[in-house]
Amino acid sequence: MVRQYILPNDSDTLPWQPQFKHLPQKVLFIQPPFTQLNTPYPATAYLKGFLNTKGIASAQADIGIETILSIFSWEGLTHLFSAVERKEPEMSDNSLRILKLQSTYLKTINPVIGFLQGQDPTLANLICTRNFLPEASRFEQLADLEWAFGSIGMHDKARHLATLYLEDISDFIIDAIDPHFGFSRYAERLGRSAHSFDELHTELQYQQSFLDEIYLSLLHEHIVESEPSLIALSVPFPGNLYAAFKCAQYVKSKFPAIKLSMGGGFANTELRSLSDPRVFEFFDFITLDDGEAPMLNLLEHLDDKRPLEKLKRCFALDEFGVVTYYNGSETPDIKQRDVGVPDYEGLPLKQYLSVIEVANPMHRLWSDGRWNKLTMAHGCYWGKCTFCDISLDYIKVYESTTARVLVDRMESLIHQTGERGFHFVDEAAPPALMREVALEILKRELIVTWWTNIRFEKSFTADLCRLLAASGCIAVSGGLEVASDRLLALIDKGVTVGQVAKVTRDFTEAGIMVHAYLMYGYPTQTVQETIDSLEVVRQLYEHGVVQSGFWHQFAMTAHSPVGMDPEAFSVVAMTTEVGSFANNDLEFNDPTGVDHNMFNQGLKTSLFNYMHGICFEYELQEWFDFEIPETSIAPDYIANFLELKELHEFKANKRVVWLGAEPELYETEDPTKGILLIESQNESIEIPVKLVVGEWLLEVLPNLSPNAEARTNLGQLKALYEEAGLGKFEKFWKGKVFRELRDCGLVVV
Q: How many Å apart are CA 114 and CA 277, to the nearest integer?
């Protein structure tokens, strides 16, 4: 059921007023527009789950998805088209076409939304006829659907077409109603590098927009339903900032007794030097970094159990109206093992939209499917990259938990949400913990699908990649960044191009997709190095070891090593004044004088084609409309790394795990020899063995399974082999039988 967006009048009386001193605190967590269409942003679910462990009542709402569902409905589009016709704005030809086809959009919108919510899969047949959906400009650049999805991938084709249909309507909204609109961000420009609060403050004084009316009406309903004494808004990105302030402004006007707080990624990175008191016309508190302990202290303060100066990492106005940072709390941050299980209660899990913006199977994970979000470890175990905000707690403070606790949480979320897909949203998931999580999943015979962010480090051996794949890992994303060994060393990334090539090969051969984060414009990067980086990327895609990627232009941030000491990186900082509002992105002057902006379109266009598996034969010059130097990278640069065989170093403490089926042994005409038969998922594999070795393997392999009572390491396996009188283990370790067993599911991790 779609909520009606009817705003209360100023004269409306409130049905209730919270009484802080007599009622237990109740928090309403709000995710303001817009973040994701396909799955909830996890911050509010994390905090709600933590408060559950303390017996504190809370509610949550994703106003973003609710707003989208209100607009993209028969009622919403009717209201939208009527508003445009009343306003009669100047519109593009594309928008005029959509307006003329409004009856077709009204007829199709509800079925399309239901289809993207997974409610009516048979609609795919109708959508794929290309006679059902109205088509505007987004369809003009439509890829070859037969090539992208094959001849039988009708459901995915239909979702891609339905996504383009929604994007056409989005373009219409931007052109005719609200230039700030975007599916995953709203008024993002107002939040980017806003050193002064002036522009945002001015924008907040204007009359409510078409979109404002919708999400404020939804907010009003949640407040009346929840009766909170505190509303906590999560602002992870600049694209959530304007709507968060607009929500706070509305609450201050209509529900003055309710207190308001803001937290999230934007506050953590941008507002650490906040000094403008006008911000507190909207919010009472702004908290930084991990939210559990600050939230607990804040609730105690609102219950008159904790003075203002004893809050934790919190901005508020003092008695003189001066913005003051309070951090006198002695409450420690909550350990990862104690944060509880994320709680998605109150979020419309079945109503999120699985869209396919790009046909690439890895790239689509960010917008396709409903993923339960979890974190393996807090912070980054590497914590050295010079472009990264490693001075901030969310990166700097590394803390892990156990595989048992993590898989317990996975099982709890499966029971709660009915979904078996997990996205571990780590800065960089630690390989050792990933291994233990995979083993625990396999031990419990849990059927899950999961993916995460990593560093392309040498710990990811071919065997570990196979183990991860067996546990349900389908994809990883990681930073290749500048794809240049000189610059990778300057960044202190801790990897080389050759290492990245080998690790991505091992993931790909295990059936795990790879997404690479790419960077250009790092200080002192030359034009030649940018072109060479593109050639490295081209070769990685051509060899099929990376399937997806995205180019980011380097931005110098105040909390990174480069931002804190620009001279050490041959950079001149241009931003010297500390703003009274947001302070993170810093302007700088690279003495090389390269205008890195000019590479933007060529890098992104070439990558888009490489991700689709085409245009590898193009000269790099064809992607740019200005002269570039020829690459200095050899044509076989990546191929040479990929041809290097992995050295299986004998390490006695490594665990040996058998992932295959229980083998059978057959005798041959030669009484000393046998055939070890192993049934894999798609074939029967026969391995010739000495009969005594085969008999030993029949006994040993079942004891190496992930759910075996005792773990067996390589040293113990060696002892068992030699105690059985089978000879020197090193010969067996390097021999053909052991290699073939590896191919069938024997891994050493």
A: 45
Q: Which of 205, 207, 657 shows the shortest CA–CA distance to 461?
A: 657
Of 545, 510, 520, nearest in space to 637 by CA: 545
DSSP annotation of 428 reads B
Can you read off the two tokens belonging to residue 142? 């439509």
Distance CA 249, CA 523 (A): 41
pLDDT digits (tens, 9 = 90+) for 98-145: 999 999 999 999 999 999 999 999 999 999 999 999 999 999 877 666
- The Cα 137–Cα 97 span in angstroms is 10
Residue type, 127: I
Q: How far is 399 from 380, CA to CA, in rounded Å?
A: 8
**CA dist., res. 357 & res. 133, Å (int):** 16
Query: What local confidence, expressed as pLDDT, does residue 193 receive?
Result: 60
Q: Is 580 helix (H, G, I), strand (E, B) or coil?
A: coil
Q: Buried b vs exposed e over 452-479: b needs ≥16 C-beta within 10 Å?
A: bbbbbbeebbbbbbbbbbbbbbbbbbbb
- Predicted confidence (pLDDT) per residue in 508-541, tens digit: 999 999 999 999 999 999 999 999 999 999 999 9
Q: What's the pLDDT at 680?
A: 86
Interatomic CA distance for residues 657 and 467, integer angstroms: 9
CA-wise closest residue to 351 among 33, 29, 37: 37
Residue 320: phi, psi to the nearest 5? -100, 5
CA dist., res. 604 & res. 551, Å (int) = 6
User: 74 to each of 71, 105, 112, 181, how far by Cα in Å?
Assistant: 8, 8, 11, 19
Q: Could you tell me if 71 and 109 are in contact, meaning their C-beta atoms sit under 8 angstroms apart?
A: no
Instruction: Mention every residue, 6+ apart, whose C-beta is less than 8 A from residue 683.
Output: none
How far is C-alpha 275 from the geometric centre of its chain's CA atoms?
31
pTM of the model: 0.92
The tens digit of pLDDT for each residue in 271-311 reads 999 999 999 999 999 999 999 999 999 999 999 999 999 99
Burial of 67 (0-12, 13-18, 19+ CB in 10 A): buried
> At 345, which helix (H) or strand (E)?
none
From the centroid of its chain, how far is CA 228?
Answer: 30
With a CB cutoff of 8 Å and minimum separation 6, the contacts of 148 are 157, 160, 359, 612
Please give the full DSSP string across 637-697, using - where no structure is assigned: HHHHHHTSPPP----TTSBEEE-SPPPEEEE-SSTTEEEEEEE-SS-EEEEEEEHHHHHHH
Cis? peptide before 34, omega within 30° of 0: yes
